[in-house]
Write a structure and sequence with these properties.
Elements: H1 10-16, H2 28-39, E1 47-51, H3 57-64, E2 68-73, H4 76-88, E3 96-100, E4 113-119, H5 129-140, E5 141-152, H6 171-175, E6 184-196, E7 201-212
Parallel strand pairs: 1-2, 1-4, 2-3, 4-5
Antiparallel strand pairs: 5-7, 6-7
The structure holds S-adenosylmethionine.
Length: about 220
């Protein structure tokens, strides 16, 4: 079997998928971010950001939990599936500001989001862009808010994936962006390997969830 290369055309992936390519259940990073959000008593109807929202599993999860969610993705099929998931799970579209957009054009309004999530999207930016977007996501997180970033772990290459052109980070490398000296309280640092049947291989990811304590 040829080595796995991450897709560059997610529109085709989502359009070809039977049902939801990533499933309908929320990602591990979104579940972790929301559990800390609640632990720190984030506002019940706070504002969340889901960048690279895909088919909407995390958008639906966060909106279903009572947050207002701004979700952005380039894939129109991903957005259409998000709308279907919201309808099916009984979450009002009024809770979601859903737009087709390239995140490179996203304004990252300062100190705006109570929960700011970028789940496995920054690896699709260039090696130069990705760290800048992590910093912009951090600045868009409100003081006291939760910021969560997940990307490929370089360990995936060990399983034969061709991710050389993609931004990747170990959990410790990601954690270095969230140092207490720069005002962050790290809450979760995870790196995991999981078998993905659609790709017939192990894939590996790293993520960090942190609370913004200082500007
Ligand atoms: C690995 S998927 C993750 C989707 C979602 N976060 C999840 O976990 O289900 C990456 C997503 O990022 C989106 N994406 C990639 N580059 C993007 C860009 N420059 N602007 C907006 N979305 C982008 C893709 O369309 C895709 O939906």
């Amino acid at each position: 079997m040829p080595a796995f290369r991450p897709p560059s055309d997610w529109e085709t992936v989502y359009a070809a998928a039977e049902g939801y390519h990533f499933g309908e259940e929320p990602s591990q990073i979104a579940r972790t971010a929301l559990s800390f959000y609640r632990l720190f008593e984030g506002p019940r109807d706070g504002l969340a950001l889901d960048l690279g929202s895909g088919e909407g599993r995390d958008t639906a999860f966060l909106a279903g939990a009572g947050l207002k969610v701004a979700a952005r993705d380039v894939s129109p099929t991903g957005l259409a599936k998000t709308r279907m998931l919201l309808a099916r799970t009984g979450v009002s579209e009024d809770r979601v500001d859903l737009e087709q957009a390239d995140i490179r054009d996203f304004a990252y309004p300062a100190e705006t989001y109570d929960l700011a999530l970028a789940a496995n999207v920054y690896q699709f930016l260039t090696l130069e862009e990705a760290p800048l977007h992590i910093a912009r996501l951090q600045s868009a997180t409100k003081l006291g808010g939760i910021c969560a970033v997940g990307v490929f772990s370089p360990a995936m290459a060990g399983w034969g994936a061709q991710i050389g052109d993609h931004f990747s980070a170990t959990a410790d490398e990601l954690l270095a962006y969230f140092s207490p000296r720069s005002g962050w309280l790290p809450l979760d640092r995870t790196e995991y390997w999981t078998y993905r049947p659609v790709n017939e291989m192990m894939v590996s990811f790293a993520y960090v969830v942190a609370r913004k304590e200082l500007r």
